[in-house]
Design brief:
Layout lengths: L1 E6 L2 E6 H19 L9 H12 L5 H11 L3 E6 L5 H14 L4 E5 L2 H11 L3 E3 H4 L21 E4 L7 H9 L6 E6 L12 H8 L4 E4 L4 H4 L2 H10 L15 E5 L3 H20 L7 E5 L8 H12 L6 E4 L2 E4 L3 E4 L13 E8 L4 E6 L2 E6 L6 E3 L2 E3 L8 E8 L9 H8 L2 E9 L1 H9 L10 H5 L6 E3 L1
Parallel strand pairs: 3-7, 3-8, 4-5, 4-6, 6-7, 8-21, 9-20, 10-18, 10-19, 19-20
Antiparallel strand pairs: 1-2, 11-12, 13-14, 13-17, 14-15, 15-16
Length: about 450
């Protein structure tokens, strides 16, 4: 049942479950800010030199300020772009609290983001769904207000991806005694699902926020990081041909007809030869949209034919062909199989006699009946939206004026920040300029910020 409410001065109609979820999120967050910190008082003047010695890192003043605030806060948001040291800060906080025998839980919205978190911190990280213990039969989660998570601190990474309903479920499972550390890049695309939870939390000024802006020296040597920050500031990335070896390139091509063969050449030959990367496992094409000659759907067909032409053992279902060696993406959550929307795997076997396809997702073997293949698509190319929470060794991004409807600053910024070792933009300078200038986009109507507003606390920029 829809219900009416006001958003500021505007009358609105809400879906009842979203209205309830946003209200409940605000109530839980405000409740958490009012209860006491679960660990004894920590002298940061002693803790900071100790953690620097343990990690071998020297923390900048802004990072020290963030750690101090985290150790004194029941609820804290840390936001900032690439290269500003979010992971270093989280690492320091976790090591200090682990030394105090605090119980720590780490989670992220996607399997890839959770795995990255685990690799970066050395602490186990789970997807939010796995942390909340999905109940495949009854639906919903086993962890909730009656069976809360047993921890002193819960860390949530890539929070820009978390929609209203998932955040509601997560906060229901956070005990009043627990502290919450929310980490994410608010300038990336908002969640695919409804709401803009991270943006609303920050804009409300009701929750302590650390916004990191200083790009550290090592990160500043990366043109990926430098150009990502330029895009985010509304400046054109440097599209000139680099004079020395770089991790960011622009390949100019004026039409879709010339862009497609150029992209195939880059993925199949030039990038693997020059950078020693596997064209299927390591190189990901990310598109602004699905449709069109240089959209994800069309490029998938072209790249699949170029990189992994199907032999006899193949299956054709739901408009796609699948064969051993194909890169595939799960496109909806499957709680029984424990594979989730956006997870990428490799097909290891197609068995026409058994009517089954087997794919490996991060070393886990998952079997699909041929009738279940509507949940898989080839993943040589994917939309930038689908790439949220993931990182890839190399990213190729077509940017042409045919993508006009989707060319926005946060879309290009999100795509560029997915690349770890290499980013190549293919297309027109005009199209890149359109994306950089365009900060509009469909407004998301949300009441969470308004409900969080009572009792503001200061915003910290460091």
């Amino acid at each position: 049942m829809p219900l009416t409410d006001r958003l500021g001065e505007t009358d609105g109609v809400f879906l009842a479950n979203l209205h309830h979820a946003e209200r409940a999120i605000a109530d839980r967050l405000l409740t958490l800010t009012k209860s006491k910190i679960p660990w004894p008082s920590i002298d940061s003047n002693k803790a900071l030199p100790w953690v620097e010695q343990r990690t071998g890192l020297t923390l900048a003043d802004s990072q020290k300020a963030a750690v101090r605030l985290a150790l004194a806060s029941k609820l804290l948001v840390i936001t900032g772009g690439p290269g500003v040291g979010k992971t270093t800060i989280v690492n320091a906080i976790l090591r200090i609290l682990a030394a105090k025998d605090m119980r720590l839980l780490l989670c992220a919205p996607t399997g890839r983001a959770a795995k990255r978190m685990n690799e970066a911190t050395g602490f186990e990280a789970k997807t939010i769904h796995r942390l909340l213990e999905v109940d495949p039969k009854g639906g919903g989660f086993r962890r909730n207000a009656d069976n809360p998570l047993d921890c002193d601190l819960l860390v949530v990474d890539e929070t820009s991806m978390v929609d209203v309903l998932l955040m509601h479920a997560l906060l229901k499972a956070v005990a009043d005694k627990s502290a919450l550390l929310v980490v994410g890049d608010v300038d990336q695309l908002p969640s695919v699902g409804p709401g803009q939870v991270l943006a609303d939390m920050i804009a409300s000024e009701a929750i302590p926020v650390i916004r990191l802006t200083e790009v550290f020296r090592q990160a500043a040597e990366s043109q990926i990081v430098v150009n990502a920050h330029r895009i985010n500031q509304g400046l054109m990335p440097d599209l000139r041909k680099p004079k020395t070896e770089s991790d960011f390139y622009f390949v100019e091509t004026d039409t879709p007809e010339t862009a497609v063969p150029r992209i195939i050449e880059l993925v199949k030959t030039r990038i693997p030869h020059r950078f020693g990367l596997d064209p299927i496992r390591d190189v990901q094409v990310l598109c602004p949209m699905n449709r069109g000659g240089v959209g994800a759907r069309s490029l998938n067909i072209e790249l699949q034919a170029a990189l992994n032409p199907a032999g006899e053992r193949k299956v054709e279902r739901f408009g796609w062909t699948f064969a051993s060696g194909d890169k595939v993406m799960q496109i909806e959550n499957d709680y029984d199989k424990e594979v989730y929307n956006g997870d990428i795997g490799l097909v290891t076997e197609v068995d026409p006699d058994e009517g089954e396809l087997t794919a490996s997702f991060d070393g886990r073997s998952i079997t699909y009946g041929f009738g279940e293949l509507d949940t898989l698509v080839p993943a040589y190319a994917a939309t930038i939206h689908k790439s949220q929470g993931s990182e890839y060794p190399a990213v190729v991004i077509p940017v042409l004026t045919q993508h006009y409807a989707m060319l926005r600053r946060n879309l290009l910024y999100t795509g560029v920040t997915r690349g770890k070792r290499l980013v190549v933009l293919v297309g027109q300078k005009k199209a890149v300029a359109i994306a950089v200038r365009n900060v509009s986009g469909r407004r998301r109507w949300s009441k969470l910020q308004e409900w969080l507003r009572p009792g503001p606390v200061p915003f910290r920029a460091v």
